[in-house]
Amino acid sequence: MAAGGRFNGVGDGTPDRIRRAARELFAEQGYERTTIREIAARAGITDPAVLYYFKSKRGLLTAILEEPTLEPLAPMTSWDPGRVADHFVTVLDDYIDRADLFRVAMTRALADDDDTNAFNRRLTRDFNKVFAPVIQEWCGTDTPTIMTAATAAFRVLLSDIVVGGEPIDGPGQRDCVRERFRRCILLVLSPPPAEGARSLTA
Prior knowledge:
Oligomer: single chain
Largest sheet: none
């Protein structure tokens, strides 16, 4: 136990407490205005304990953004582009809900290769985990093309929202963004599964 009643921070569950405190503070006052000292105080630990686990505030942000939050697309008994597109919209919602954090990550990524790589890892991991198995089953050799096109569409829209500041809080505005993205994904998914992929009647 450190002076002032705060735990020195090396122990089970401490990283989770730090991430939770950081998420709360980043949401309340923004990434730039939040200090390591404030995060430590919110988590009930000492300042060095935060740096012991995450090395820097940027490292903590990266760890938060790389937390798994998405459920994989469930297996399908027939090829259903509408269902796949709906699940893409679910992923978009997850990113929109954390737009402030992604705004920081994407803005920094424009000027820093390390941040770009971290952000790209997050997108690639999410898309591979959530969509690739089902799309691979039904679309076979077309899967890389579909995944690349879907990721590109996602990046463009996310950049408009997160970096460009496209409004999403007014009445119906999020629904408009979601529907626009859904239409984009349906265009990507519109070709039938490739020859040699699983039969549509399986």
